[in-house]
Amino acid sequence: MSAPEVTELLERGAATPSSMADVDEIRARVQIRRRRRRFALGAAVAAVVVAVVGGALLGASLFRDPPMPFVDDEPAPASSSAIVLPTIPTREGEGGDLAAAHGRLRFDPDDRCFYLDQGGTRTSVAWPRGWYAEDDPPRLIDAGGTTRLHVGDRVELGGGYGQTYEGREPCPGSDGWFFAWQVNERGN
Amino acid sequence: MESTTPFDDFYTRELPRVVGAVSLYCGDADVASELAQEAFVRACERWDEVCRMARPGAWVHRVAMNLANSYYRRRRAERRARQRQSQETDDVHRDPDVADKVAIRRAVSSLPKRQRQALIWRFYVGMSVAETAHQMDASESAVKSLTYRATDSLHDMLFESDREVGDVRP
After folding, report:
1. Closest C-alpha among A75, A57, A54 to residue A132
2. CB B17: neighbour CB atoms within 10 A?
């Protein structure tokens, strides 16, 4: 076949546009597509922002001083000689074992606070939920009402260290806080 | 009287040729119309760039053929999936065009892909050998060879034997 014959053959076989979209419809499709792309871009940016902020919050929660301390909402039993004892929201034995602190329980009569004496280093302690203190003699009583520790007792605590405690000052001279959710008495 | 933009003119001028070329390439008028429209949507999206090209029409033809290739790749994959599930049904195609047109399209669309491209761009779209070679990323001698073999096969299929035209295979 010659080239003109081939062209003529192809012309005969080719489909002609019927009921084709007019140019306005083409433009409308372009607009819809651009809007979709803008929406997808916006959604992707929002997802990235959420991921970054979420990651930052998660990171902050993982690396901050454990656990979140605040004054226990369970009031200690009323007592005329009650000492305000810092406590944490976690009940005894419920938290994981992050860090340990060993030492002897001491009481500062001037500031009326208990602290852990770790070979000369003072550490203020926030005790498990429900614990409270009584004076005369100064002692610590657990959530079940059992006297657990007296001044001078050796004790092993499980929990975590922290630098701040809801704006409260640690016992004077102490080196930060220990938030205790495990308490093991070791006697005298 | 409505004013027309350069894109309007381009669309009106090129559309029939693009639909015809794709219909020969894939053998299906409806599919060709759909793919041609999609090619023009893409041209409209990038009109600032496309209008500066030496031959915007050639760009649209190439986009349309690429879309046809993608379309048939997807269809083949779907067909294989259906076969795996033993649920294949006869793929009955109803083409509103007359038998003569359909026979020619089916014959062209049964040629090997490169032969089809060379034949359509060279003899239907009217590109020169050099333009066709550029469009296909091939040498001019390769284009001449492809068009020669395509023409020969087409002649055999349409005029010299009663053998059945094979499946569409872009």
Report:
1. A75
2. 19
Residue whose C-alpha is closest to residue A134's, from A114, A153, A117: A114
- What is the C-alpha to C-alpha distance for residues B119 and B148, in angstroms, rounded to an integer? 9
Distance CA B47, CA B35 (A): 18
Chain A positions in Cβ-Cβ contact with residue B101 (cut-off 8 Å): 12-15
ipTM: 0.76
pLDDT at residue B140 in the model: 92
> What local confidence, expressed as pLDDT, does residue A70 receive?
47
B positions 74-133 inside 8 Å of A (CB): 97, 100-101, 103-105, 107-108, 119-120, 123-124, 126
Contacts 24+ apart (CB under 8 A), B134-140: B135/B58, B135/B61, B135/B62, B138/B114
Across the beta sheet with A132-134, the strand order is A82-83, A132-134, A139-141, A147-150
- Between strands A147-150 and A154-162, the pairing is unpaired
Name the band, by pLDDT with cuts 50, 70 and 90, for residue A42. confident
Alpha-helix runs per DSSP H in chain A: 3-13, 23-63
Cα(A117)–Cα(A72) distance, rounded to whole angstroms? 24
Copy the structure tokens of residue A73. 């909402």
pLDDT for B4: 67
Read off the pLDDT of residues B106-143 as tens digits, 9 standing for 90 and up.
Answer: 899 899 999 999 999 999 999 999 999 988 888 999 99
The pLDDT, as a whole number, for residue A160 is 84
Helix, strand or coil for residue B65? helix
| B15: chain A residues, CB-CB within 8 Å | 17, 20
Instruction: Identify residue A27 by its one-letter amino acid code.
Output: R
